[in-house]
Amino acid sequence: MTNNYNMKEFSSTAIITENASFPSTYSINGKSKENDTEKDDYDPFSNRKLEHPNSDMRSFANLLKSSLGSGILAMPAAFKNAGTVVGIFGTIILGYICTHCVYLLVKTSQDVSKVSKVPSLGYAETLEAVFATGPQRLRKFSRGARIFIDWAMAFTILGACAVYVILLVQSVKQIVDYFDHDSSLTTTMYCLMFLVPILIFTQIKNLKYLAPFSGFANILLVLTFVICLYYICDEFPSLDSKPMSVDVGRLPLFIGTVIFAMEGIGVVLPVENTMARPQHFLGCPGVLNITMAVVILLYMIMGFLGYVKYGDASQGSITLNLPTGEVPALMAKSFIVVAIFFTYTLQFYVPMEIVWRNTRDRVALKYHNHAQAAMRAVFACLTVAAAATLPRLEQVIGLEGAFFYSFLGLIAPALMDLIFHWERGLGPYNYILVKDTMLIVFGFFVLVTGVTQSIREIVNNPG
């Protein structure tokens, strides 16, 4: 698997290999729970045939890169809806919950791979296998569950692409407005201008032509991050200048933003599936725990320092707070435009692959090329239209995190773990039932309250 991707920001992008195939798509055969005694006879790790397996260090780098994208630049805006102390502890708690849900997904995937006797499974295939080998009355829903999670993943990434368009538009608008104070260009006009290059680049169907841009985008993101830290530390205010907590009603926006920024649920299985020693992914310390500890620390530092610096003026990306008239700030804004544009094209590749593999059988072979071109154009237009309709970056980030990532990152992994163990044992005192139920309830709480508060913010502050 190539490591030339910066993908959180989605995140299932890392499921793509160098030959642009999906390595974890296997036919799942339902087995009764009586056959679970056979799972100890099958070792999925030893049956994985990888041409270029990744070391623990490279897997750590891939997972870190997938979680440390442009989302970190939104952390000051998240702290704006929590306060300094609540933001710090909230980030730690949410980071722990997200990490545990990732653990549940990977552990369930490994266990159900033994039962299904397949080397590895992707996210959607894991859900299908859990249903196919779970309680009898759920087995008929296995294929439907896989299709549902496939489409949920696709629309999650398309939502993130809409967020990228908003950041592109706001960044370019700041630059243009600085040099042309009388500019009459509206947000819709900027979206239409970006639509042309987006339509061109999203027609590229071969990943190898897109992948080289990822390394360049990564460099620009690092440089942007460094410049932002420079401005944050310059004339840094007193640490107690900002409130330790804010109105509790704004907390759902904090939770949604943090989950959006931190959640990389779609990338973990592709990383684990391509490891030379996948048994090192979980456990203590383990690749997952080390990576998430670093991610939580960096997100907490960025959110805290950025909020103390800019307070309630913190925007959806901290680059938007930088003074456009200064050269380093102008460079950061320009860097983020280029980096996010290439990130968009890479991210867009994944949902198109998901949508196409679920629809191509309904299209005659001779029309495949035309159908793919039309499909890509339609979905690209939808992301731009969404950006034009919802122009406030921090609002859309909170909405995206609450609606999509709460389901894929919190609810679905806990639900899979619960279904898998339902007839295999729920642990002493049914602790698995209690724990997973609490996670599912929390996930729905985040979804409902986050979406409600985000919509309220969008309605009350449409500008």
Automatic annotation (TrEMBL):
Location of region: Disordered: 27-50
Domain Amino acid transporter transmembrane: 55-455
Domain of life, source organism: Eukaryota
UniProt membrane topology term: Multi-pass membrane protein
Spans traversing the lipid bilayer: 85-106, 147-172, 184-202, 209-232, 252-269, 281-307, 327-352, 402-420, 432-455
Keywords: Membrane, Transmembrane, Transmembrane helix
Primary residence: membrane
Compartments reported by the entry: Membrane
A Pfam family annotated for this UniProt entry: Aa_trans
Full protein name: Amino acid transporter transmembrane domain-containing protein
